[in-house]
C-alpha cells in the first residue's frame, strides 16, 4: 500500500483517491503519525501532501524522521516537496510571485516520473514558496516560467518532488505521473480490486464478530446495503437487519428494500412499519429543523425498541465512509465515528455496541463498485442520495398523509421520465417538491385551485455545491403534462433554476 502524510492541503484526500484509482490501496494519515500505526500495512511508498504552511517558519510541520530512515520511496507534492528539500539540506524561500493556477511544465528528455509524457504539459500550481537550492544528491528535471525546479529528484534514493499538483483534474497527465511513482518506482501492485476487498473484509468481519450477533440499520441507500451484505457474507444468520419504515419514503421504496433483502439476498430483515408514529410526531409541525429533530428522535426510539428484541446482539454495523472518518479527525487514532443522520449514535448508554464498519476506508464510488461486485441491483447501487428525513422535507409546511401521497405520485413521474430519458446517472439528485402554495388554473371548462409542484434536478460532484440540470425542454414538458394530468390536486409545475449556493439542494 501507499501512505499519504497529510500536511493539510485541500487536495490531500484526492491524492488518496487517485492512488486507489490505480488499484493500489492507499491511506491518508496525519503528517506526524507514529511509525507503529503502519505496522502490518506492507507500505511500499510515502507521499507527502501539500499544505498551507511555509517550511522555514518556526514550528512548521515536517515529516517524522522515520520517513527518511525507512528506505522507502518518497514523493513530495508542493509543500511536501518543500518539506523534502528543507529536511534533506536544500533551501526554500518565498517566491517573488505566488504561482497559482495553470502553468506549462517543460521537462528534460530523461526526467524520472515523467515517462510517457510530452516535453511540455499542463499542470496546476498553487504555491508561494519555491526551492532556491536543491538538497545534495538531487537534480532538477523540469521547470515552469516561474519555478526553476518544477520536478526534482534523487532517483538513487527514490526521492521525488513535484512543485505542482498531479492529483487535480487541471493536471490532465497527473494520473500518469502518479502511476509512474506508485507502480513504477514503488512497485506497488494494482491488487486493490473489489474482489480482493470483499474477500479480505469478510475475513476481517469474521475475526471481529466471531459467533456474536450483529444488528444493522437499513435505510435503502447504497452504503447501509453494501455494509449489510458484507456482514451477511461473513456471519450469515447472525446478522439481523432492521429497516425502520418511517412512512416518508418514495413510492415503492419500502417494498423494494424488503424484496431485495428478504427474497433476493435471504437476509434476516425486520421491517418495522412506524409510519403512524412518525406522522403523529409531525402533526402541525412546519419548521424544517423541528421536522428533522422529531424524525431523528423518533428514529432512535423505534430503532432502540427493535434492537432490544434481538437477543444477544453485541455488534452494530454502520455504513460509515472514509470521508466521514477523515473529517471527524479520527483517522490517526482508529477511533470510531457515527454518522449523524439515521443517528444511531443517540442510543441510550445501557445499549453498548461494538461497531462494525466495513466501509470505513472506502470512498462512495468504491462502495458502488463493491455493491456491483456483490450483485446488488443497479437501482440500489446507483440510487441518488436521499435525505434521512425523507419526503417530510420535500413536503413544505405541515406533513400529512394526503400531501405525502400527492408528492409520491408527482415524484414517481419525475423519476420515471428521467430514467426513461437515460439521464438518471448524469444527475446528482432529482425529485419533486410539494409546495405549500395553491394556485388557480383552468381544466376543460372548469376553474381549478390546486397545489404547485416544483421539480428539482441538480448536477454536482459532491453535495457542497450544485447546479441546476439543463434538462431538455421536451422532457420538462412531458413531466409537467403528466403531473398535471395524472396527479389529482396539482394544477401547476415549476422548474427550480437555483444553483447551490445560494440555494440548497432540498427546499427545507
Ligand atoms: P442541501 O439541501 O443542504 O443538501 O443542499 C445537501 C445534501 O444533503 C442531503 N440532506 C440530508 N441528508 N439528512 C440527510 O441524511 C438531512 O437532514 C438532510 N438534509 C439534506 C440532501 O438530499 C443533499 O444530498
Automatic annotation (TrEMBL):
Summary of subunit composition and partner proteins: Homodimer.
Enzyme Commission code: 6.3.5.2
Identification of the protein by name: GMP synthase [glutamine-hydrolyzing]
Listed Pfam families: GATase, GMP_synt_C, NAD_synthase
Keyword list, A-Z: ATP-binding, Glutamine amidotransferase, GMP biosynthesis, Ligase, Nucleotide-binding, Purine biosynthesis
UniProt xrefs under PROSITE patterns: GATASE_TYPE_1, GMPS_ATP_PPASE
GO molecular function: GMP synthase (glutamine-hydrolyzing) activity
Superkingdom of the source species: Bacteria
Gene: guaA
Described purpose of this protein according to its UniProt entry: Catalyzes the synthesis of GMP from XMP.
UniProt-annotated binding residues for ATP: 219-225
SUPFAM superfamilies: Adenine nucleotide alpha hydrolases-like (SSF52402), Class I glutamine amidotransferase-like (SSF52317), GMP synthetase C-terminal dimerisation domain (SSF54810)
HAMAP family noted in UniProt: GMP_synthase (MF_00344)
GMPS ATP-PPase domain boundaries: 192-383
Amino acid at each position: 500500500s501507499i501512505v499519504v502524510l497529510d500536511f493539510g492541503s485541500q487536495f490531500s484526500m484526492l491524492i488518496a483517491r487517485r492512488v486507489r484509482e490505480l488499484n493500489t490501496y492507499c491511506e491518508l494519515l496525519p503528517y506526524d503519525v507514529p511509525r507503529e500505526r503502519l505496522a502490518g500495512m506492507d507500505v511500499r511508498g510515502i507521499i507527502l501532501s501539500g499544505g498551507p504552511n511555509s517550511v522555514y517558519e518556526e514550528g512548521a510541520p515536517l515529516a517524522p524522521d522515520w520517513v527518511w530512515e525507512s528506505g522507502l520511496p518518497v514523493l513530495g507534492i508542493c509543500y511536501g516537496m518543500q518539506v523534502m528539500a528543507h529536511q534533506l539540506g536544500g533551501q526554500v524561500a518565498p517566491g517573488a510571485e505566488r504561482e497559482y493556477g495553470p502553468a506549462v511544465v517543460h521537462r528534460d528528455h530523461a526526467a524520472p516520473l515523467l515517462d510517457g509524457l510530452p516535453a511540455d504539459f499542463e499542470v496546476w500550481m498553487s504555491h508561494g514558496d519555491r526551492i532556491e537550492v536543491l538538497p545534495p544528491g538531487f537534480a532538477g528535471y523540469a521547470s515552469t516560467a516561474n519555478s526553476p525546479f518544477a520536478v526534482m529528484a534523487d532517483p538513487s534514493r527514490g526521492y521525488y518532488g513535484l512543485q505542482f499538483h498531479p492529483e487535480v483534474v487541471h493536471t490532465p497527465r497527473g494520473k500518469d505521473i502518479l502511476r509512474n511513482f506508485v507502480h513504477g518506482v514503488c512497485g506497488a501492485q494494482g491488487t486493490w480490486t473489489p474482489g480482493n476487498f470483499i474477500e479480505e473484509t469478510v475475513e476481517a468481519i469474521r475475526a471481529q464478530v466471531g459467533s456474536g450477533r450483529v444488528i444493522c440499520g437499513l435505510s435503502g441507500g447504497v452504503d447501509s446495503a453494501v455494509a449489510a451484505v458484507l456482514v451477511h457474507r461473513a456471519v450469515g444468520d447472525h446478522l439481523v437487519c432492521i429497516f425502520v419504515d418511517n412512512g416518508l419514503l418514495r413510492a415503492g421504496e419500502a417494498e423494494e428494500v424488503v424484496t431485495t433483502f428478504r427474497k433476493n439476498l435471504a437476509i434476516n430483515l425486520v421491517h418495522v412499519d412506524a409510519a403512524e408514529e412518525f406522522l403523529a410526531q409531525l402533526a402541525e409541525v412546519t419548521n424544517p429543523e423541528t421536522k428533522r429533530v422529531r424524525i431523528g428522535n423518533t428514529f432512535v426510539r423505534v430503532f432502540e425498541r427493535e434492537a432490544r428484541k434481538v437477543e444477544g446482539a453485541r455488534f452494530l454495523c454502520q455504513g460509515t465512509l472514509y470521508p466521514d472518518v477523515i473529517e471527524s479527525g479520527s483517522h490517526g487514532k482508529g477511533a470510531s465515528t457515527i454518522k449523524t443522520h439515521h443517528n444511531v449514535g443517540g442510543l441510550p448508554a445501557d445499549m453498548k455496541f461494538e461497531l462494525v464498519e466495513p466501509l470505513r476506508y472506502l470512498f462512495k464510488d468504491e462502495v458502488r463498485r463493491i455493491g456491483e461486485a456483490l450483485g446488488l441491483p443497479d437501482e440500489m447501487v446507483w440510487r441518488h442520495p436521499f435525505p434521512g428525513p425523507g419526503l417530510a422535507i420535500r413536503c413544505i409546511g405541515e406533513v400529512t398523509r394526503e400531501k405525502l401521497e400527492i408528492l409520491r405520485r408527482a415524484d414517481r413521474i419525475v423519476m420515471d421520465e428521467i430514467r426513461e430519458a437515460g439521464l438518471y446517472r448524469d444527475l446528482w439528485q432529482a425529485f419533486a417538491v410539494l409546495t405549500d402554495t395553491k394556485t388557480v388554473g383552468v381544466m376543460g371548462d372548469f376553474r381549478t385551485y390546486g397545489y404547485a409542484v416544483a421539480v428539482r434536478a441538480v448536477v454536482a460532484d459532491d453535495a457542497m455545491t450544485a447546479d441546476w440540470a439543463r434538462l431538455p425542454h421536451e422532457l420538462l414538458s412531458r413531466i409537467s403534462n403528466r403531473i398535471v394530468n395524472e396527479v389529482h390536486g396539482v394544477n401547476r409545475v415549476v422548474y427550480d433554476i437555483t444553483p447551490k449556493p445560494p440555494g440548497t439542494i432540498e427546499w427545507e
